[in-house]
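Team,

Forwarding the record for the chain on the shared tracking sheet. I've put the sequence and predicted structure together so nobody has to dig through attachments.
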Amino acid sequence: MKKLLFAFYLSCIAITAAAQLKTTVQCKTFNVNVLEGTINDDLSVKSTLGEFKEAFPCFTSAVDEDGGKGCGGVFYKDKGIDIITERGYFEIAANFKGKLSVPVMGAARNTLFKWLGYPKLKDAAWDAFQTKYGIVILYYNKASKVNKIQMSRYGTDAVKLCNQ
């Protein structure tokens, strides 16, 4: 009986020890080109959900697309970037853990002309700049510094953003 209990005890330890070994999915650094609308030079605001999942498998969540009615995409909350493929845009938060081609995050509102020119549309809390791929919308905090970036493949007349 002791041998049977000892064998059972050892098998429980072996199962528990094996269950604790889990690998962490590693991701490349997100290199966002604000002027070109690309990430790591090969994915763009026109890339698919599957392409992003394959290139950056470390997503925190993913929502399947439903024919343009929803906000399907791949979300990297711990990295400060969301890719809303269904609506064709990237959203970069203030906690972004990657690299931007031009240092717009945290930049003062009155310093953006040198990179983006004049805004096509302005509001008290945001500016929308025309780009060759669509638009980039910059949101400002109370100190008039950029705290969110949205890069869309659509122009100001056709962009549809999600409320997240």
